[in-house]
Design brief:
The protein is mainly alpha-helical. The chain has helices at residues 2-9, 30-38, 53-56, 92-113; strands at residues 61-64, 78-81. It has a single domain (2-113), classed as Response regulator (Rossmann fold, 3-Layer(aba) Sandwich), CATH 3.40.50.
Length: 115
């Protein structure tokens, strides 16, 4: 959700986000697809990928969501952790709350970084 919000809200000439996880599923969870579609963002075609050191090293920022010790630490890459619940096992009402919390965090990040 964070990468989708970032790419929907950021100036595409300045930045774009790539989504990856330490334990990615085989597809975006259907409740996440539904909640994001309700907000006007289509993530149905997104394909989860594993967060590797190589992928992280291509970034200027690494925004993590509670992966702790499993998150790569890459010299020169700024890192910020957002402790957000995993929406995969949550009821749709909670997924919507998580969606909205992530959007707010992305908006604050974009404003702070002037993206």
């Amino acid at each position: 959700m964070a990468a989708a919000w970032f790419n929907a809200l950021a100036n595409p000439d300045k930045a774009r986000a790539i989504s990856a996880g330490t334990h990615p599923g085989s597809q975006v969870h259907p409740s996440v697809v539904e909640a994001m579609r309700e907000a006007g963002v289509d993530v149905a075609g997104a394909r989860p990928q594993r967060l590797t050191d190589a992928l992280a090293s291509q970034a200027q920022w690494l925004i993590t969501m509670g992966c702790g010790e499993e998150c790569p630490v890459v010299p020169g890459v700024k890192r910020e952790d957002w402790p957000i619940d995993d929406p995969a096992a949550a009821p749709i009402a909670r997924v919507r709350e998580i969606r909205d919390e992530i959007r707010t965090r992305v908006e604050v990040f974009l404003e702070r970084e002037r993206l």
